[in-house]
Design goal:
The chain has 452 residues and is of the alpha+beta class. 51% of the residues lie in helices and 10% in strands. Strand 3 and strand 4 form a beta hairpin. Helix 15 runs parallel beside helix 17. The structure holds iron/sulfur cluster (SF4).
Length: 452
């Protein structure tokens, strides 16, 4: 069961949490299962099959590269983004792969990695299968993995177990109503509840890890701002954050100018993500810019106590994000972009409302508004790249998050639509959405705009 801030905010690489980070994690899990069976050195061939959305947008989302890196024992957290091209070129040029970083096998990227464009696995839209064979072509191990969004990966046997699993937490909650009831009964903020549930780590560790998440987010913004040029892929999209930064005046206090900074922070993050750089899933990679942008904007223009603000903001956001993960989905292949940008907007709105002094009910209201006005948002990335509409969409999510928190803070917390109800609505809307609008690049902008 996912309950932690650090499950939701994961350090990884771009461009996609479900299509890059998840498949790399699946590759890691496969080699550790092979190791447990003591079959690494008996393996002579590995075959990877991608299904559904993983196949349809896999090339644009670097799913093939991610699977191979995972089998080579590279992890999303530790792989150096600057070395990825080198690793993949070696596999391509030599038709060889160093399985688990220790055993060389033949691997042909065209024959041993298959995009099954017309097939889906029934359990989830993001399915994949990895099989290992010995030299007599006997199957040593075959596993199916499902990348369920935000870099989370489950095996077939874990899909149902996850729903029933219980974990002992000081303040367990399954819904926003339960979370608010805890806050009221214990006289705690949402962030305090969330942090109490991490208590087993110890205060120093919690603090350190949260600040490290922010350091990675902040470094991503800074790299994005400093990097000119063109993003990888068929669109030849010019990076805009670099130029935007050149034109911004650092000491302006004008509110409208401050929105330019917000846009800049979101764009810088998602250009880095599109370039395969180091990012934090928040709660996904496609939507990785919303939360850092709103937090960076608040720190730049409003904050005095940075560390406390960062902790409260991220802990509150995570508490809200976990509700979506638990009761709906953060996978665009399941529910469209409302599950990515919509959830990020809702989380950021909650975080901002909290650091601006909102009560738990106002924070819940902000999160609800943040999602309510993203309902129905489709996922239709052009040419399967996490670039258009994704990069700009992060700026829109950030702007909406600020407005959602301002609306909530002007209210007393009492409101018509409860967060639980909007989460259920988002989920239902996603299930009803036609699959061509769910990370397949078969509908919407993806077919109405010419890619080249
Ligand atoms: S359209 Fe939204 S959900 Fe789809 S890839 Fe882009 S950011 Fe992710």
């Amino acid at each position: 069961m996912v309950y932690s801030i650090f499950d939701l905010f994961k350090i990884g690489i771009g461009p996609s949490s479900s299509h890059t980070v998840g498949p790399m994690v699946a590759g890691n899990r496969f080699i550790s299962s092979l190791k447990q069976l003591d079959q690494i050195t008996h393996t002579t061939r590995v075959r990877i099959d991608l299904y559904g959305s993983l196949a349809l947008t896999g090339r644009g989302h670097a799913t093939d590269t991610a699977c191979i890196l995972g089998l080579m024992a590279q992890t999303p957290r530790e792989v150096d983004p600057d070395n990825i091209k080198l690793y993949i070129d070696q596999v391509k040029n030599n038709n060889e792969l160093i399985l688990a970083g220790e055993h060389c096998i033949n691997f042909d990227m065209n024959d041993d990695l298959c995009f099954n464009f017309t097939e889906s696995l029934k359990q989830h839209a993001n399915g994949m299968k990895i099989c290992a064979y010995d030299k007599q072509n006997n199957v040593l191990l075959c596993r199916r993995y499902f990348s369920i969004g935000g870099g989370f990966v489950l095996e077939e046997s874990e899909l149902n177990k996850q729903e029933n699993e219980q974990i002992n937490l000081p303040y367990a909650y399954d819904s926003a109503r339960e979370l608010l009831a805890i806050c009221q009964k214990e006289n705690m903020s949402i962030a305090e509840v969330m942090l109490a549930n991490e208590k087993h780590l110890g205060d120093y560790e919690i603090n350190n890890r949260i600040l490290n998440i922010w350091r990675v987010m902040d470094a991503c913004i800074k790299r994005g701002i400093k990097t000119p040029g063109v993003l990888p892929g068929s669109l030849k999209l010019k990076r805009r954050a670099y130029q935007m930064h050149q034109t911004l005046v650092d000491n302006s206090t004008d509110y409208i100018d401050s929105m330019d900074w917000l846009n800049l922070f979101a764009m810088a993050t998602n250009e880095e993500n599109a370039a395969g750089g180091r990012v934090v899933t928040a709660p996904t990679n496609g939507a990785a810019g919303v939360i850092p942008a709103v937090l960076a904007w608040y720190l730049k223009f409003h904050s005095k106590d940075d560390e406390q603000v960062i902790t409260e903001f991220l802990a509150t956001s995570a508490a809200i994000g976990l509700l979506y993960h638990r009761n709906a989905s953060i996978s665009a292949a399941e529910v469209g972009c409302q599950g990515e940008i919509g959830v990020a907007c809702s989380m950021a709105a909650a975080g901002l409302a909290a650091v601006m002094g909102g009560t738990p009910m106002q924070v819940e209201n902000a999160a609800e508004i943040g999602m309510e006005h993203n309902l129905g948002l489709t996922c239709d990335p052009i040419d399967g790249l996490v670039q258009v509409p994704c990069i700009e969409r992060n700026t829109m999510g950030a702007v909406k998050a600020i407005n959602a928190s301002k609306l909530a803070l002007q209210n007393d917390g009492l409101h018509h639509v409860h967060l639980d109800d909007v989460i259920a609505t988002m989920h239902q809307t996603g299930l009803d959405m036609m699959s061509k609008y769910k990370e397949t690049s078969l509908g919407g902008l993806a077919i109405n705009v010419v890619a080249c």
